[in-house]
Specification:
This protein is mainly beta. The chain contains one helix and nine strands. 3% of the residues lie in helices and 43% in strands.
Amino acid sequence: MERVKVLKLKEGLPFTMGAGQNTRVVCPEIGARNITLNYCVHAPGVAFTPHIHERSEDVIVVLEGRGQIISGDSLLDFQAGDVLYVPAGIRHGTINTGDVPLVMISCQAPPDVALYTGEKDKP
């Protein structure tokens, strides 16, 4: 029987994408089949490796800090309070351009398991 799970943002399973602190909170390992949720904290200057989700849409909620998101061949500025929507198939990655940690939550649907294996952590 499925049950509600109470999870902690800072107690997820770590994964590597660039040099930031990234954790998967809602993921296939806990039984999620249709969505993932990640919590990321990146120091000034740190980038989340640019990548593509072939089938997944991505929503990134910026909780603290500011930065830029790579959108294909462009850079777009964002800051705390912004929500970034990335359609499937679009190359994207974030860069902390501020002087404080960049804190974000991201959700992908459907899950892109390759994000957690290191397969997408390539320049």
